[in-house]
Amino acid sequence: MKDEGGRMKLEGGDSSLIPHPSSLVIGVIPARYASTRFPGKLLADLRGKPVLQWTWESAKRAKNLDRLVIAAADERIAEAARKFTCGERRATNDDGERRATNDDGERRATNDDGERRLQSAISSDAHSPVHPEVIEVFDDCPSGSDRVWRAYEKLWNVECGMQNGKQSAIRNPQSEIIVNIQGDEPLLEPGTIDKVVERLLSDPEAGVATPVTPIRTEEEFNEPSVVKVVLDKTGRALYFSRVPIPHGWAQNSAIRNPQSAIAYRHIGLYAYRREVLKDFNGWPQCQLERVERLEQLRLLNNGVRVVTVVVESAGGGVDRKGDLEKMRGMSD
């Protein structure tokens, strides 16, 4: 959340503000057609819209995203995404948007001026390899975060080409934050994105921030598709796994008390500092990542500080056809 001066503000009754003078926050939704349990799920119909469109529209309501794009891994995904993003582009050219008045009453413009120029450059170039909101990343990627980085690189390369290499006058890439938003989360709360960005900005030592929510049932605890995470006392992630951790949680009613939650469900959304995501893309997959099939273990294996923010709801992801049927039966 931003205050009237355009600065990040932490929730919870605290008046502290997180300086956000130059960080551009870019949301990227990596979107594949392939899926082991439900191929084509992102294009499956949910109340008249593809699942991916619901995720896109929810993410667009996040207040802390300056830009949102889709990293399409397949032409079918790209074609569908172009249709529903066309005409919904954010009105970044409005003179008054994302401008703030400082304490002296003077007008100051944020780095969105540069982002508007980038948007214009991409949109006006007939030979540009990207659609303003849809970026084609058809090459094989070991994880969603790898695809997010390659989509970001395409944006950066277009900017350099359009501005004759004068990128430093437009953006300060070292301070940018890139948010990986899973495309199969149509019930994702926009506020969850905002809280994750705020969490990363509040901790200079953190390289990545991600949301978690307390596990409340044994069924959830034992389900392999529900990724479990254990935390230290500061909220730093110690380990992620598909197996039930910590051991003994389900057998101990005192431990299951919501007031002393120690078993958490991970929600697959990540806010990365740019340089961390760049390094992530360059690191080989580690053995733990391959065994668990969890990309975030590559971060822990390389010593990255991953911090978490606890949210009330996991939202709702589409992992199997049954998940989609449940959502179709939900009331508005």
**N-to-C series of helices and strands:** EEEEEHEHEEHEHEHEHEEEEHHHEH
> What is the global morphology?
globular
| Poorly predicted tracts of residues | 1-21, 90-130
Radius of gyration: 20 Å
Largest sheet features: 10 strands, mixed
Structural class: alpha/beta
Number of domains: 1
- Please count the helical segments: 10
Question: Beta-sheet strand percentage?
Answer: 15-25%
Topology, number of strands: 16
* CATH level 3 topology: Spore Coat Polysaccharide Biosynthesis Protein SpsA, Chain A
Average pLDDT number: 78
Q: What is the helical fraction, as a range of percent?
A: 25-40%
**Could you state the CATH homologous superfamily?**
Spore Coat Polysaccharide Biosynthesis Protein SpsA, Chain A
Specify the CATH architecture. Alpha-Beta Complex
Per CATH, the class reads: Alpha Beta
Measured distance between first and last alpha carbons: 25 Å
Task: Write a brief structural summary.
The protein has a single domain, classed as Alpha-Beta Complex (Spore Coat Polysaccharide Biosynthesis Protein SpsA, Chain A), CATH 3.90.550. With 332 residues, the protein is an alpha/beta fold. It has helices spanning 51-60, 75-85, 112-124, 144-162, 190-202, 218-222, 274-282, 287-292, 296-301, 321-328, and strands at residues 8-9, 17-18, 25-31, 45-46, 49-50, 67-72, 99-101, 107-109, 134-136, 177-181, 208-214, 228-231, 237-241, 264-266, 269-273, 306-310.
Task: Characterise the protein shown here.
The strands form four sheets. Strands 3, 6, 9, 10, 11, 12, 13, 14, 15 and 16 form a ten-stranded mixed beta sheet that branches. A two-stranded antiparallel sheet has the order 1-2. It contains ten helices and 16 strands. A hairpin with a 5-residue loop joins strand 12 (228-231) and strand 13. It has helices at 51-60, 75-85, 112-124, 144-162, 190-202, 218-222, 274-282, 287-292, 296-301, 321-328, and strands at 8-9, 17-18, 25-31, 45-46, 49-50, 67-72, 99-101, 107-109, 134-136, 177-181, 208-214, 228-231, 237-241, 264-266, 269-273, 306-310. Helix 4 (144-162) crosses helix 7 (274-282). The model is unreliable at 1-21 and 90-130 (pLDDT under 50). It has 332 residues and is an alpha/beta fold.
